[in-house]
Amino acid sequence: MTPQLAFLGQFGDAIQFIFQERESVSGGVQIGGLGEIADLTATHLLVSLVAMAAACALCIPVGLWLGHIGRGEFLAISVSNVGRAVPALVLLFFFLAYLGIGFTNVASVLFLLAVPPILTNTYVGVRQVDPEIVDAARGMGLRGVQIVRRIRLPLALPTIFAGIRISAVSVVATATIAPYANVQTLGTPIVEPQTYGFSGGLGAAIVIAVLTLAVDAGVGLIQRAVTPKGIMLAREGPRRRTGLALPTRRREPAL
Amino acid sequence: MLLVIAQLQTHQRTGATCVAENGFCPSWIEDNWDRYVDPFTQHVVLTLAPVAAGFAISFTLAVLAHRRSWLITPVTSITGALYTIPSIAFLFLLQPLTGRGFLTAFVALTCYTLLIIFRNVTTGLASVPAEAKDAALGMGLTERQLLWRVELPLAMPEILAGLRIATTTTVGLAAFAFLAGAGGLGEPLNEQRFFKSNIVVAGGLCVLLAAAFDVIVLTAQRIVTPWKRATA
Q1: Taking the model in full, what pTM does it have?
Q2: Which of A141, B9, B79, B91 is deepest in the core (most CB within 10 A)?
Q3: What ipTM does the predicted assembly reach?
């Protein structure tokens, strides 16, 4: 261990693992170092991205449509309740035992995990749009698809992105268990202590924590960028962080 | 689920060769039921203890923040950051400080419940109608009486909704406790992760536990909010 990091104890060793190659615990192989960490991070982000892209592509249109026609409340809400009851680890192991290992299966598990927050938030976001605004748009001659695209979607975007943010964080967090399915992500050093030892696991944990906080902040920035100015102005009182929001309950409009 | 049923039908007849073929084996499950008792009990403790501790902490914080609204933002940011750090990473980050075992899992899981419960208690208290508070003050209730007799009972549905989310989430996260050497159902899940019968039992117990807690809190919610039944 380099002397500068010695005072950090196990953390110092873990940080050194991130930056410097070393021989594995069982011997024979070189582990750690920025090269391996970068490789693992790339796979980690790739499998997360595939899952997120698929979930967004499915849930946003479906949520918009259900919200627009005002049906399927039960589906949109209960999906998130069911999603919470099935732990990610159980879901992954079910896929492993019954469908086998591999990139596609991991991506599918992460996809299933990403669906509930995006779907629920899109639905709730669309329903939250003031009916008077929709009426006004209709009065101006906008038709169904136009109302969805030009009125409902922009106004629901902050809520939709809050959902995407929740999903992105949990997907990146859960991609950690992908090595169980033979997809080498940043979880590898955690899952294989016999090779990587405790400092490897701790090092990977540090990288994963930083990565997740970065993803959270990144999606948060996008969320702020897409929020229509009118909404920002209309939001009264001290600005609350919406990012980590659980799906916001639909408020009844005060009459 | 369909897959499970299909497996069940295919392998029912084979019996002894079932385990060798890695099927879904009711007879194996019957014989090995005992090995799941301890992990299950640990899992229950790993859920209840953090939720109880988390509730005590965040409930106190929320009640404090109720009259001092400047507290809400810092508490939300701190608990929010804790909530964002992935559970698996957190279980490792804590180990140099708390060692391997129950304590690490307990601390990590407790941290995850904080944001959920704090947020719900805060919104619950904030959504108490001003008329109800005015009426109570008009009747001569003190601040303390107002809180315990009017505001908290009226905020109860929201508070219990938070408790419900926190409990089911914790059941799921407790499945990772084995990474910190704290046992739970994740242990048997991980030990034989390609053996279908094992996954069905351990995973099934996990899901059932979450569902059971969900129902219990829902029932409690119904009992403590009798006025809601009139409209339901």
Answers
A1: 0.81
A2: B91
A3: 0.78
